[in-house]
Design goal:
Subcellular location: Cell membrane
CATH superfamily: MFS general substrate transporter like domains
Transmembrane segments: 29-51, 71-92, 104-121, 127-147, 168-190, 202-220, 258-277, 289-312, 324-344, 350-372, 393-410, 416-434
Radius of gyration: 22 Å
Largest sheet: 2 strands, antiparallel
CATH architecture: Up-down Bundle
Membrane topology: Multi-pass membrane protein
GO molecular function, one term: transmembrane transporter activity
Organism: Nocardioides currus
CATH topology: Growth Hormone, Chain: A
């Protein structure tokens, strides 16, 4: 009985963990469909078109402000982003006090999918319902991601964390890419006499149904994990959550490596998000590509990112997550440098740039998640991941501001994209200051064989 514990009973924990990991991958598969089909591709152009139908002198009224329809998606996403950055930390404290994280994962996911489904009724100039739908869908999505990421350390030991996180990201890109391909086919062919607007609404609804449906797999198959190291705080559940949050904020100075990594992540993640957000603008306005080339590139990035996430997981096993992330940031620097010289109306170089983005996109984000999980204390997973996502969301306007200002001063998108190199340089420089082994030991976690 070679795999027996001292008591003579076989240790089934690795087998149980593997079953939970397979269930957990499905949540990345579920929510990525909404992120790609709705948030990345279809929502912005659709709500702009609906708002234009209701506009008077190319203006609509947004909480008393006169706004151009073209600016509406940016305002809505910015508002949802700031709101979630404020709400996520107390939510993280609450989640660390519950054993039944999978229940809350389901609640937030289904609330998000239900909110997103309201986009079906966004038509005939009624942009307001679309605004409400996207704000609440984004809020609930962010909440579900805090819970989902906090489950990662509970279902994988330190040795396997990079592999598990990378597989989750890979599944996400695959699921999101498959549904997006189906939706773009519907949008392109317009069968049964559908209009473009109807095809868009069907596509956005399908992403919400996909999100809600596949969430049942982790909801049914994940296990409960009792809270660990929870501070005793008096009062009702809300008071206890804020009490725990303040205790954690005071305690964070004891984990300087986790804080240093959060600062590094703030910079390099903002660079990544801005490259992705601005790539279609760069492709259409600077390089002169039509919608079909841009759509094909988005799909290419999705499917290459599936392999990229798995590749980075394997590289981390050999070289450690920190070194692999640094290698990824070096490739991001090459990508934004290449964008400076990319020839206009030349499809092949643009597609090759898309392949390079796909390779590093999933990998750097997946390893950032698993690397951070090694630097945080047990029992505080949701709280620390709430700060991680608050960094992701609350500061994600730095990159777009730099991009916008550079374009304004130079009147070209080439230097605007290249200017984002500063985020990868700063992020990499700060990440190099993280002492991985010290950070893991300070957090009370086991040091993996390769760091």
């Amino acid at each position: 009985m070679s795999h027996a514990s001292p008591g003579g009973i076989a240790d089934l924990r690795p087998l149980e963990q593997e079953k939970e990991q397979k269930a957990w991958y499905w949540y990345d598969w579920a929510n990525s469909a909404f992120v790609t089909t709705v948030s990345t591709v279809m929502f912005a152009p659709y709500i702009i078109a609906v708002a234009k139908d209701a506009a008077v002198d190319n203006r609509i009224s947004l909480v008393g402000l006169s706004v151009a329809p073209g600016a509406l998606p940016s305002y809505l996403v910015t508002f949802a982003t700031i709101l979630s950055a404020l709400l996520l930390p107390p939510l993280g404290a609450l989640m660390d006090r519950t054993a039944n994280k999978k229940k809350w994962l389901g609640i937030f996911a289904w609330a998000g999918a239900a909110s997103g489904s309201l986009l079906w009724f966004c038509r005939d100039g009624n942009w307001q319902i679309g605004a409400v739908a996207i704000i609440f869908a984004n809020l609930f999505l962010a909440a579900s991601m805090v819970v989902n990421d906090s489950i990662l350390p509970l279902i994988s030991d330190e040795e396997n964390r990079d592999r598990v996180s990378s597989r989750g990201w890979a599944w996400g890109y695959l699921g999101g890419g498959l549904l997006l391909a189906a939706n773009l086919a519907l949008f392109t062919m317009l069968p049964f006499g559908l209009t473009e607007g109807e095809a868009t609404r069907i596509s956005m609804l399908s992403a919400c149904v996909w999100w809600a449906g596949f969430t049942f797999i982790p909801f049914l198959r994940l296990k409960e994990h009792p809270p660990a190291n929870v501070e005793h705080v008096e009062g009702n559940v809300v008071a206890r959550s804020f009490g725990q949050l303040f205790a954690t904020l005071r305690d964070m100075k004891n984990y300087p490596m986790a804080l240093t990594f959060l600062l590094a992540y703030l910079f390099f993640n903002d660079g990544i998000q801005t490259v992705i957000a601005s790539s279609s603008t760069y492709g259409s306005e600077e390089l002169g590509f039509g919608q079909s080339v841009l759509i094909a590139t988005i799909l290419l990035v999705q499917f290459v990112a599936f392999g990229g996430a798995l590749l980075f997981g394997r590289l981390a096993r050999s070289y450690g997550a920190k070194h692999t992330i640094l290698g990824g940031l070096a490739i991001w620097m090459l990508i934004v440098t290449a964008a400076l010289f990319l020839p206009a109306e030349s499809v092949v170089p643009f597609l090759l740039l898309g392949v390079a983005i796909g390779i590093v996109l999933g990998g750097t984000q997946a390893l950032a998640r698993s690397y951070f999980s090694l630097l945080i204390p047990r029992g505080k997973e949701a709280e620390y991941f709430s700060f991680y996502h608050a960094m992701d969301r609350g500061t994600s306007w730095f990159g777009t501001l730099v991009f916008g200002l550079t374009y304004q001063f130079t009147d070209s998108y080439r230097p605007a994209v290249f200017a984002l190199i500063v985020f990868f340089v700063l992020g990499g420089a700060i990440l190099m200051r993280v002492d991985t082994e010290r950070g893991i030991r300070e957090a009370g976690n086991d040091v993996p064989a390769t760091i």
